[in-house]
Specification:
CATH topology of the domain at 93-175: Leucine-rich Repeat Variant
Distance between the termini: 24 Å
Number of helices: 24
Number of strands: 0
Structural class: mainly alpha
Largest sheet: none
Shape: flat
Amino acid sequence: MRAAQRGDRPALNEAIGPRQAVGNLSNGEAASLARAVADHEVRTASPQEASDRVRDVGPCAHELDDALAFRMKSHDAAGAAAALARVDGQGLAVEDLRVFAADADPRWRAVGARALVRSGDEAARHVALLDPDPLVRRQAARAARDAADPADLAALAEAARVDPAPIVRTEAVRSIAALGPTPGGEVANVLRDLWTAGDDGLREDIALAWARPSVWGAGGREALRVVVASEHGPAVVEAAAAVLRRHADDDVTQAALGQMVRAIEGGARVARLQALAEAPLDRRDLLGAVEKAASDEDLEVRVAALGRLAGTSDSHAVVELEALAHPGLPAAAAARLVLAGVGDRRVQAWIEEDLRSPQAEVKLAAATALAELGVAARAAPLLADPDASVRVRSACAIVVAARFPR
């Protein structure tokens, strides 16, 4: 712990090694070490790297609130990012950010825009949605989601339609989805107009918005019926999945079922993978399509299908995945991650080998898989990794795993 607190990587690595060898480092101990490592990295990062470290701890911001509060004291990019991370981690009330709404620095003005959630902030939100800086516009859209004021509809629709930053357009659609019911199906109609010109990412959020209870009965159902019956692509798969999550039994549901089956059996790879991930397997037609995809020539599709079946305790699917998970095979990493998700400990040794990979993303995927298996402590060697991002992101994976012990 002393090595972790002072950032002494060689000493930390030397201390973890014997515990790792005998396997007696507990998940709780590893989580404590992980918090110490991440805390030290956030506090001591150089100005050039501080924003990256704040971003890295985003998933565990709640546990790292003290370090983020320390970083927030600096009126720079990392400090602004830390302020927003603290709000997301529920360590700081959004109201505490209002003082920054007129800040000269757009990064901190964005922090202030996030706090424009009161009923009387409508005019200020609309001004912020037109700010020259996309950081400010994005946080203004997020504030509108919290405010859920129907009076924001026109301003949000305009942002979703013309803003040059894709993330701002996405946030605007998500905020439209959070608005309360409007007369005459106005929200559903606005979303229909946005669908026409939107890309796949924006359309996926529109589909989810149509399926929300406040929109479904006020034009959303009809919009989804038209889309799932006549179009195709990833956004339409999302629309079909949104319909099926309502567990209804009507013509819209039947159209959605047909759309999902077609996507699994003959769509482009991205649509096939999405449909496989979202298909509810309590529907016989969909279960049959997934079973068929489990022998597909495309290994990525096959692993995805087998993963869904393995999640239903299909022992044959587990055996098939284990055969694909052997080191050196093309889909081995994906198969191991899927098996970890269903708790198959037989792949643990292979996953631990990935901790020594030269590739950062392979190491981090291994940390995630070990957390899925309930043995997050086995990823502890990454806390002393030479790459600061690997250290912090793996630390966050270990810390988050401690929230949901297995």
